[in-house]
Amino acid sequence: MAEATELALFDLDYTLLSGDSDYEWAQFLIERGMLERAEYEAKNDHFFRQYKEGRLDIHEFLDFQLAPLARHPREELDRWHAEFMRVKIRPIVRAKGKDLVRKHLAENHLCAIVTSTNAFITGPIARELGVPHLLATELEVRDGRFTGKPSGTPPFRQGKVTRLAEWLGGRGQSLASFAASWFYSDSHNDLPLLERVTRPVAVDPDEILRAEAQARGWRVISLE
Fold it and tell me: 21: closest CA among 129, 111, 101, 105?
């Protein structure tokens, strides 16, 4: 197969999914008695408000969000994840999102999900969606267990641009290597990467991104 001349990048939560995989994982753990609901939801609401306002401290959030992974052996987490996919993720996969991915793959575009959600949660989701490459928050592992700390640059805001450049650089490429590059996202937090690609697309966007997209003449679509 000839090398791809075009690049298609996808945000995950509220873009290819109709919900947030981070949030759904926490709900899954709460329902199984692994997390205390009142304490978790108060903290999560605090971080979600910051995210919507564009002032989330990603490292503070990751300390909170990754901590439960450090409490359990990997085999147990993997077993839970299979059930999590069945009860929480498959019901929120957007059919139009899967169709969009298939369209880009059929046209031999290089396709990747770029998400700040961690790779443990999102790896199986990327496979479910048929997306061959995943740029997610990588997790530190020690003696076969997650430490609860991230590894490398989390792909959040400007970090998505950084991680994309690192990944493409490892392939001997850059954004300029492609005749066209798409990025599909719902969030104004993704403006740094949306501004870099040749074909930015706002997907069921938040109010700030919708206004930016309309002002800049970007395409706005719905995958609902």
Answer: 129
What is the rounded average pLDDT of the residues 124-133?
A: 98
Catalytic residue among 13, 22, 186, 206: 13
Neighbours of 130 (CB within 10 A): 11
* Band (1; pLDDT cuts 50, 70, 90): low
- The kind and range of the H/E element at 141 are strand 133-142
Tell me whether residue 204 is one of the annotated catalytic residues: no
Q: What global pTM score does this model have?
A: 0.96
Based on the residue annotation, tell me whether 57 is a catalytic residue of this protein.
no
pLDDT in tens, 161-209: 999 999 999 999 999 999 999 999 999 999 999 999 999 999 999 999 9
For the chain, the farthest-separated pair of C-alpha atoms sits apart, in whole angstroms, at: 53
Element containing residue 169 per DSSP (H, E): helix 158-170
CA distance 7 to 45: 35
Look at residue 104 and give its three-state secondary structure. Answer: helix
